[in-house]
Specification:
Blueprint (H helix, E strand, L loop, with lengths): L8 E4 L2 H12 L7 H20 L15 E6 L4 E6 L6 H9 L6 H11 L4 H7 L11 E9 L6 E6 L4 E7 L8 E8 L9 H11 L7 E4 L6 E5 L14 H12 L7 E7 L5 E7 L15 E6 L2 E4 L13 E6 L8 H6 L1 H24 L1 H15 L1 H5 L4 H7 L1 E4 L2 E7 H6 L8 E5 L3 H5 L5 H5 L4 E4 L4 H7 L8 E3 L24 H14 L5 E4 L8 E4 L7 H9 L10 E4 L4 H7 L6 H18 L7 H17 L1
Parallel strand pairs: 2-8, 12-14, 17-18, 17-19, 20-22
Antiparallel strand pairs: 1-6, 2-3, 3-7, 4-5, 4-7, 5-6, 8-9, 10-11, 11-14, 12-13, 15-16, 21-22
Length: about 625
């Protein structure tokens, strides 16, 4: 640095960044090489941003039109320099980019990286968009000198990663003519990153397909030797690309460090011409359920990066990573034009169809890989059943579900329909928060007794899509917690199972219960869906089922739930005993009926509506039982 640096500003990192840096400095990863991939990726992005801005301001490129990334090794001083001639950063951009973390999810990242303890830290670093900070895994001091394209001012950012950083002006002669130079002062145990062989191997393994040429300078003052030519992978013939090439490119473009579960690479010709290279990750990205639900597909025009906010795929495919390159759009395409372009809408449709078709083929040909894909992204894909009317049938057919007949291995609806019982007219389902809760649901009893398969749906979106999906192969979807079960026409598998016929005394007890409960329920009736439990709650025939009512009330979309129906098992011993109680013992019978309603609420995952009244009634019943 020049001695003319002035006005040194000292800043303290934001709390989240400080904690993150502490984790970086003190964590030990099995593969620290990830830092170089992240810095190269940032440099490539800077070069792409310059190409884009130069479309309307070609003077930004000046006399240096060729983008490049240069790695300079300095073994004697234990330094590694990563330099690019991209867009560069102003003083404010340095503070914003390197002093804060703008992306959401930082806290979740830190919790997961602490829990990882080195097992998957490299993957997490890329996923959370904090790649620059990974430099502190190998460096005890980092200097960044940057000059924004078109500016005559240059700035120096420096930090030891221990809580603060400085920013100061720097003499233009000591800065790149344009772009950013990052100098890593390596730790003792990281000096191997000044080895030409080590660095070249890492570049070829992890960054060989970034769309910017990469060169290595073996020592200060030496000639640069190119180690990656910057040829865009997606422009090559598929036959010339190896699986390793695809994986390397995927890791760079996706910010993931796993293997892609599916690669979709094709060229569309005809009415619209474009090339797409898309990947389904092998593991869940951290932001899969980000409220913004934005996609991560990049849009290029004639190999010039335009934006990663073009929404090239519907939101239920937001886990797909990759890019699309077309020559049919102008290079100076605006954000507004992107959103409203009929041409891009047509391209979006073609890309979506191709991705879904590829996932379907994966399901047919590689069941085990598809099972992992579905485990990771099935809950997101099912959002499309609710949102994408045009492809609803295709998405339902693609979906897999845990059922009472297959709780461990999800099944396709085509298999469900094939195994339906004689007399069964609907696809039955049960929604809830978790599988264990659903398996214990009393509403399942009558279906299990008849061997009727029920879908066990635990994802929040399940409560919504089943209300909009009219049928599958002519079979409507029906919640087993809503309306009448209509099971009388299907015989129970066990001929010794208790009869569900209602005796006159039980029929009278049902009427008594309905009068006693009054406005607390919408109805009380004998049940043909219960075989073991005494009672359960169901929703009326029309409107949302029990789980959807709870979700809507929990989010404030409805003020209160519809009064439930209390179903009573006419063959249960407790019900028979209560029905046989003398009519003059009405106080006890009223307590018992209200306790039955509270029992049904508890079985449904709720609390008694009146905890004090519940306790008092329970005490009275206990006292009666103890007195004999």
């Amino acid at each position: 640095m020049s001695e003319v640096e002035i006005s040194v500003e000292k800043h303290v990192f934001e709390a989240d960044v400080a904690k993150l840096l502490h984790l970086m400095v003190h964590s030990v990863y099995s593969d620290k090489n990830v830092f170089l991939r992240e810095l190269i990726s940032n440099a490539a992005d800077a070069c792409e941003k310059l190409r884009y801005e130069a479309i309307v301001a070609p003077e930004l490129i000046g006399s240096d039109p060729t983008p490049r990334i240069t790695l300079t090794l300095d073994e004697e001083n234990r330094r590694l320099v990563v330099e690019d001639n991209g867009i560069g950063m102003s003083r404010d951009e340095l503070v914003e980019s390197l002093g804060t973390i703008a992306r959401s999810g930082t806290r979740a990242f830190m919790e997961r990286i602490e829990a990882a303890q080195g097992k998957d830290g490299a993957q997490l670093i890329g996923q959370f968009g904090v790649g620059f900070y990974s430099a502190f895994m190998v460096a005890d001091n980092v200097d960044v000198v940057s000059r924004r394209a078109g500016s005559d001012k240059a700035w120096h950012w420096a930090s030891d990663g221990k809580g603060s950083y400085t920013v100061s002006a720097v003499e233009p002669a000591d800065a790149p003519a344009r772009g950013t130079r990052i100098t890593l002062h390596l730790m003792d145990d990281a000096k191997t990153y000044t080895s030409r062989w080590t660095v070249e191997r890492i570049v070829k393994d992890q960054s060989g397909h970034v769309p910017v040429p990469i060169s290595i300078v073996e020592k200060p003052g030496a000639e640069a030797a190119q180690v990656a030519d910057g040829t865009a992978l997606w422009t090559k013939q598929k036959s010339d690309i190896s699986k390793e090439d695809y994986t390397d490119f995927y890791r760079g473009v996706a910010g993931q460090y796993d293997e892609p579960a599916l690669t979709v690479h094709f060229r569309a010709e005809g009415r619209h011409e474009y090339t797409a290279l898309a990947f389904v990750p092998g593991s869940k990205p951290f932001d899969l359920f980000d409220p913004d639900r934005k996609g991560r597909m990049k849009l290029y025009v004639k190999r010039v990066f335009i934006t990663d906010e073009a929404e090239l795929l519907p939101r239920y495919l937001r886990f797909v990573r990759g890019l699309l390159d077309t020559a049919d759009l102008p290079l100076n395409v605006s954000r507004e034009m992107i959103q409203e372009s009929p041409l891009l809408a047509s391209i979006r449709k073609g890309l979506t169809n191709r991705v879904l078709t590829s996932i379907e083929k994966l399901a047919e040909n590689e069941a085990e890989t598809f099972a992992t894909l579905w485990e990771n992204f099935g809950s997101v894909i099912k959002e499309g059943i609710y949102e994408d009317f045009e492809r609803r049938t295709q998405l339902i057919g693609l979906s897999r579900f845990r059922t009472t007949a297959s709780e461990d291995k999800p099944r396709a609806l085509s298999d469900y329909v094939k195994d339906m019982k004689d007399g069964q007219s609907a696809i039955y389902y049960l929604t809830g928060d978790n599988l264990a809760q659903l398996q214990a649901s009393p509403q399942l009893e009558g279906f299990r007794a008849r061997g009727i398969e029920v879908l066990l749906l635990t994802d929040p979106v399940d409560s919504f899509w089943v209300t909009t999906a009219p049928d599958f192969e002519g079979k409507p979807f029906k919640s087993i917690t809503q309306g009448a079960a209509d099971l009388a026409g299907i015989a129970k598998q066990n001929s010794e199972a208790a009869s569900s016929e209602t005796s006159p005394t039980v029929a009278e007890f049902v009427i008594f219960a309905k009068v006693t409960l009054g406005e607390a329920v919408s109805d009380v009736r004998a049940s043909d869906r219960l075989t073991e439990s005494a009672v359960c709650l169901v929703a009326p025939e029309h409107g949302p089922d029990r789980q959807l009512q709870k979700m809507l009330q929990g989010t404030g979309r409805i003020e209160s739930t519809v009064k439930p129906i209390l179903e009573i098992n006419p063959g249960h011993a407790l019900i028979a005993a209560l029905a046989g109680c003398p009519a003059e013992d009405s106080a006890f019978r009223e307590d018992a009926v209200k306790l039955l309603l509270d029992q049904a609420r508890v079985l449904d995952g709720d609390k008694p509506e009146d905890p004090r009244g519940f306790a008092e009634r329970l005490s009275r019943v206990f006292n009666r039982a103890l007195k004999g």
